[in-house]
Amino acid sequence: MKKVSSPICLFAPLLAFLGAWAFFLFAYPYHLMRREQLTLFLFDGEFIRQTYRGTGWLAQFLSDFLEQFFCLPVLGSLIVALLLTGIGVVVYRIAQHFMGRWPSLAVATLFFAWSFLRETGNLYITRYTLVALGYLSLVLLALQFRKTWQKALAAALLLGAGVWTLGTPYHQYYGKVWGVPQLNYERVIGLDIETSRENWDKVIRLSKPDLHMVEASYCCNLAHAMKGDLGEALFNYSQKNTATLLFGVSTENSIFTNTLAGEAWFQLGDMTVAEQSAITSLQASPKHNGARFIRRLARINLISGQEAAAQKYLNMLSKTLFYGKWARSMMPCNQDETTRAELAAASANLARNDFIHRSTQPRRILLNLLEANPENNPARTYLLCYDLMNYDLDAFMEEYAPRMLSGHIFKEAVLIWLSQNGQLSREIFAQYGIDNSLTDRMDRFFRNPDLFRNTYWFYYMDAMMRANNE
User: Fold this and answer.
1) Residues forming a β-bridge with 240
2) CB under 8 Å to 25, separation ≥6 — which residues?
3) Tens-place pLDDT, residues 318-333
4) How many CB atoms within 10 Å of residue 356?
5) Is the peptide bond before 209 cis (omega within 30 degrees of 0)?
6) How far apart are CA 414 and CA 431, in angstroms?
7) Degrees to nearest 5, angle at CA 422 with 418 and 427
8) How many helices (H) and strands (E) would you count in the chain?
9) What is the pLDDT of residues 38-48, one digit of tens each?
10) What string of H, E and C letters represents the secondary structure of 111-154?
């Protein structure tokens, strides 16, 4: 008589699948999108032959193939949920050879939970979930033989084949034995991804409430600068001196920090540091490639007028599933009027007086960018904010002109400088657009500073008080 499956044995996998799918779709979507950005799969015979060979070739091939779909949240979370549910089902079938239904279900649940938590690791790659599922499937296949010696021989042969095709299920960096969801870090990853996509409104929404993380403030600062209102918003969330304004690029930084560092420099117009960021991140990525970095390098070279170098990157991307159309449209011979206008506008910000520099010289770079294009308002905004966050009011006043940029923090800084230099007169106030409402507000600030935490006055006073106490 045919054995009928218990309802719980049908309901449990469905519940596990739906739970995993909903978690990675709604609570953890950027985790998978970031994994896709660090992957590059080309539909090219030579690339496939050169890349997928040696021990573990099949697992690496399948992992890279699947991860390219992670840019689509619904499909990416669906793939991960299917893999995790598959592990639970296979473990249940294996355990049933040695124990009863309920103990088998408990063991399968533990394996599912373990695999799920591993998937939430920051640098985890899909390859290790595939490898775990592959080895477990080989064990289950070996157990289908009836005689003990047949099972042992089949297990030895299948696992031997598994070592060749699947490789190791563990890597000290990317396949750690344990993981745990980090929801705050997930939001920071989201800020990074939306910043790279130039979705400035979404960056600002994701940063609320303030995460009190340097990376979150960095992304929010860039979003407001690109929208033209950083002079109003700068102190509406936490700041850590210039550390939240510009990042340096260094091999000592994490790949996440180096990748973020290039975003601001790219938008401000310094392609040298932006290129350093992309190349350093490319070299440090888990697979030493990544669609995000290749795409950025293509754009940098197009803006810089290096069409031959750009063509190399565009040719690679043209062989991908989701970036091929964009790459072909960006090729010099295929660009439309809108694309050419955007590239010309970005090229106008390039420094004309080149010098050997690094991202550890941010003020000099910003000045160089403004010499090339005085209309580069994002660079001017960053220069003014950099001086203010360094408490260098003299340098700020040298570069500030009230008709160039608006923002209450700029006027607040001017008022401090004027009071320090004994230039408090109506005529000078008029030159800088300072009216009675601002001076009255400053009087209220001194009576109760805590009510004005979003002002430059509070930021400057707090720094001076800390300096006096040291």
Assistant:
1) 242
2) 73, 74, 77
3) 999 999 999 999 999 9
4) 6
5) yes
6) 11
7) 65
8) 25, 0
9) 999 999 999 99
10) HHHHHHHHHCCCCCCCHHHHHHHHHHHHHHHHCCCCCHHHHHHH
C-alpha 427/C-alpha 154 separation (Å) is: 93
Measured CA to CA, the distance from residue 188 to residue 195 in angstroms comes to: 10
Query: Is the Cβ–Cβ distance between 267 and 378 less than 8 Å?
Result: yes
| Residue 344's pLDDT band (cuts 50, 70, 90) | very high
Per-residue pLDDT at 5 exceeds 70: no
C-alpha–C-alpha distance, residues 199 and 236, integer Å = 20
84, 115 in Cβ contact below 8 A? yes
DSSP string, 365-431: HHHHHHHH-TT-HHHHHHHHHHHHHTT-HHHHHHH--TTT---HHHHHHHHHHHHHTT---HHHHHH
For residue 466, give the amino acid letter: R
CA-wise closest residue to 273 among 199, 373, 379: 379
Token pair belonging to 40: 């590059």
Class of domain 183-347: mainly alpha
User: 193: buried, middle or exposed (CB in 10 Å: 19+, 13-18, 0-12)?
Assistant: buried
Q: How many CB atoms lie within 10 A of CB 160?
A: 11
- In angstroms, the CA 375 to CA 369 distance is 10
Residue 226 · residue 378 · CB < 8 Å: yes
Name the DSSP class of 242: B
Q: Report yes or no: 297 and 305 within 8 Å, Cβ to Cβ.
A: no
Domain boundaries, the chain: 7-166, 183-347, 391-469
Using a CB cutoff of 8 Å and minimum separation of 24, what contacts does 158-162 make? 159/135, 162/134, 162/135, 162/138
C-alpha to C-alpha distance for 44 and 291, rounded to whole angstroms: 15
pTM confidence score: 0.92
